[in-house]
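Continuing the series of single-chain predictions for the mutant panel. This is the parent chain; the variants come on the following pages.
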Amino acid sequence: MARSGRVPRMALGNRPNPSLKKRTAFSAQRKKQATSMNKRYQRQALFAPIGAKGQQLLQEKKVAIIGLGALGSSLAQMAARAGIGHLLLIDGDIVEWSNLQRQILYNEEDVKAQLPKAVAAEQHLRAFNSEITLEPHLTDLHSENGDELLQDCDLILDGTDNFATRY
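Parent structure:
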């Protein structure tokens, strides 16, 4: 055996693997399903727990992301790239210099322009995925606006950094 713990190729010989044929047929079927949808999401559709139907469901969902700081900006970027069909972006802050080292969605131009995080997030996310709906809200979430903002959302992702908003 090689030092890495892997069996050298020669040691395996030419033994037939009955499950290989079954796996290959299954893989070909999954690839066929995935190619019928947008190539952007093809790899996700190949992932059995998602599949083509699951990807279609993701594209039909509305997700709210509350707080677009370090955690929220990462969540927003992954949701946009995954093809969530409608993203509600809720944050009342502007992008500041101190945000840049940990909030991966923003850049120096956002700070210089004093952009609100929801607006900057919308602009950057649109560059990642122009096929989704992005709805920025330049406000903090609170008890007076929560019901109205979050109606019809299928999922709410908490990217807040304070207990008052989270509560």
